[in-house]
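Follow-up to my earlier ticket, as requested here are the two runs.
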Amino acid sequence: MQQDYDPYEIKLANEIADTLKDRDSITLHLQYVRKYKEEFLRKILAKVMAMDESKIRKNRAALYTFLINQSSKYGDAGH
């Protein structure tokens, strides 16, 4: 099923994907942009980008996804 995203949603999802160097997951980022408030996504992104790379197990994109899912699970996602 094709989702119709507005230009701002597409721009934000692309910005997040580019920042995380995660262009392969653009569909996931579009879903997050549609589901969560921009402030929430930017807060998680800033947290991930501020972390020392040596402290990250896999990569920044995986950590970003993990933190969004954890926050969502515990009701801190800012729907």
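Run two:
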Amino acid sequence: MILESIKYMILGMGIVFIFLYLMVIVLDWQHKLVEKYFPEAEEEPKTSSRKDKLKKVAAITAAIHHMKNS
């Protein structure tokens, strides 16, 4: 009885291991296929202007002021 349960446990764990291994292989293959036919467009880093920086500072200052007065 114990040996039979161990046999089924090993069988079940083996099936799960094989399924997960195949899933990793298929997902790796899919990743390579997508990268080959649909490459990501590389964007240049956007430099923020002085005006954008001042807007960020104003938003942070307004948030701090609102938090202190609440």
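The only thing I checked on run two: The longest helix spans residues 2-37. Let me know what else you need.
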